[in-house]
Amino acid sequence: MDWLCSRLPLFTAFLILAAAIDAILADTTVSGTVFCDRCKDGQLSLFDYPVSGIKVTVTCPDSDGQITMSREETTNWLGNYAMKFDGTPNLGNCYAQVSGSDQESTCGAAAGPAKNLRLMFLMFDMKMYVVDSLLTQPAYPMSFCPRSSTPNPVLPPVTPVIRPPSPRSTPIFNLPPLPPLPPLPPMPPLPFTEASACPHQNWTMPEYKCYWRGLSPDAEVALVFGPVAAQRYGTNMTLWEGLQGRGDPYTTLLREAITALLNSYNSLEFPYNTVGVVTHTNWALMGSSRSILLTALRFLRANSGSPSNVSCKLTPCK
After folding, report:
1. Are 30 and 132 members of one domain?
2. In the beta sheet, which residues pair with residue 110?
3. Over the stretch 102-131, which tens digit does the pLDDT of each residue have?
4. Phi/psi of residue 117, each to 5°?
């Protein structure tokens, strides 16, 4: 009985805190990115890029197909869009699709298929839905795109024309063979097309250093995340130092943001693309302490492979 009485105030404080968080943070967000499908092949490729000024509509039908709720938002200059719904409605039957573009957009002639909303995060009546990348297409594919594999037309046979050799032909010199090129160093495994999510502990191990594609552990946080991050973390903190942060909401946000950035570089199926990680981090830093905690939890959940139970596909470097 004495043990229960001594812990009763702590338990009561926990209930009050949970009720307060539940009352303050009860909302639902939907976010995603629109890419310009420059080759008009219906899928993401290295030639595609996030496009701004694209209108995205989230539509929610009922069981009879009648529209019960609809909301529209325009992508920002990073190609991202975010919609907020009051309360915690069930958006499991809703879908998002490109519905138009502004006059300045050059990649809004046609739109790709609609995508269903996926519940990514649920805690204290907070819900976050994500949408797989939506596509919009230009009027014509770009000239540098690989052509589709269509059978070549059958051409009539051509009779070769044999000409006599010219009496003043240029002499042919036999050049010495070039020395063989040195062998290239072995490349690390490429799980880029596989779904992979690795926690921050993996990225601090020496055997995974070869997967720091496009990023250096010594790169400054201010250079990667921009001036807003520089004001919070200074201009000298490196990505490697940011991965060690813990205990404080701001350092936890930076740790999980760097981890999500590395995961986005190494897996096309990661829930956040590279631009989206930087964007959400800056939005959180410019917001309240609630947005710091919420964004950190979203990154942490994605880095742990939830909700699809995705594992870390990295293999130790040789």
Report:
1. yes
2. 137
3. 766 668 767 888 999 998 777 766 788 889
4. -80, 140
Q: Phi and psi for 304 in degrees, rounded to 5? A: -90, 0
Domain range for residue 92? 26-137
The pair of structure tokens assigned to 167 is 């009496």
Separation CA 268–CA 181 (nearest Å) = 33
- Overall number of domains in the chain: 2
Give a yes or no: residue 188 inside a domain.
no
Residue 5 lies in a domain: no
| pLDDT tens per residue across span 240-277 | 999 988 878 999 999 999 999 998 888 888 889 888 89
In a domain, 142, yes or no: no
Burial (CB count <10 Å: 0-12, 13-18, 19+), residue 119 = middle
What's the whole-model pTM score? 0.44
CATH of the domain at 74: 2.60.40
Residue tagged 């917001």 (tokens): 287
The Cα-based distances of 117 to 31, 91, 93, 248 in angstroms read 9, 7, 8, 32
Q: Exposed e or buried b for every residue in 59-69, given b needs 16+ CB within 10 A?
A: bbeeeeeeeee
Residue 127 and residue 208 in one domain = no
> Does 38 share its domain with 129?
yes
Integer-rounded Cα Rg, in Å, for the chain is: 27
